[in-house]
Amino acid sequence: QVQLVESGGGSVQAGESLRLSCAASANILMFNTLGWYRQAPGKERDLVASITRSDTTYYADSVKGRFTISRDNAKNTVYLQMNSLKPEDTAVYYCRGLFLHGLDYWGQGTQVTVSS
């Protein structure tokens, strides 16, 4: 069983930065895609950013230019650097990994709260 463990969430003021980490219990090169999702109260869980094994990245329009997804293969960790945070970025952020053979893993989530 593969585990994904997020960390780095917290409460910040608008304009500040946070870096989220997602540590995997398996070699992250075995994941086809790793992504960060977020879910605000009363809303659906949406994709924020993703990175493939070949380092192709995707960003939702709402975070382009502010968020950066990256990976450290040696640490089996994926990061989400979040700059210029806005109150609308407030949500629970989840890490998701699409593993080999179609297996799908989620982390437990980490809360990000941005106040104005």
Can you walk through the features of this model?
It is built from no helices and eleven strands. The strands form two sheets. Strands 2, 4, 5, 6, 9, 10 and 11 form a seven-stranded mixed sheet that branches. The protein has strands at residues 4-7, 10-13, 18-24, 31-39, 45-52, 57-59, 67-72, 77-82, 91-99, 104-106, 110-115. It is an all-beta fold. β7 (67-72) and β8 form a beta hairpin. The mean pLDDT is 96.
What is the compact description of this entry?
With 116 residues, the chain is an all-beta fold.
Any key phrases for this structure?
single chain, 116 residues, mainly beta, seven-stranded mixed beta sheet, four-stranded antiparallel beta sheet, 0% helix
Provide the structure class.
mainly beta
Residues in helix, %: under 10%
The gross shape turns out to be globular
Could you tell me the number of beta strands?
11
Low-confidence stretches: none
Mean pLDDT: 96
Instruction: Please state the CA-atom Rg, rounded to the nearest Å.
Output: 13 Å
Describe the largest sheet.
7 strands, mixed
By DSSP (H or I, 4+ residues per run), the number of helices equals: 0
Distance between the termini: 40 Å
Beta-strand content: over 45%
Order of helices and strands: EEEEEEEEEEE
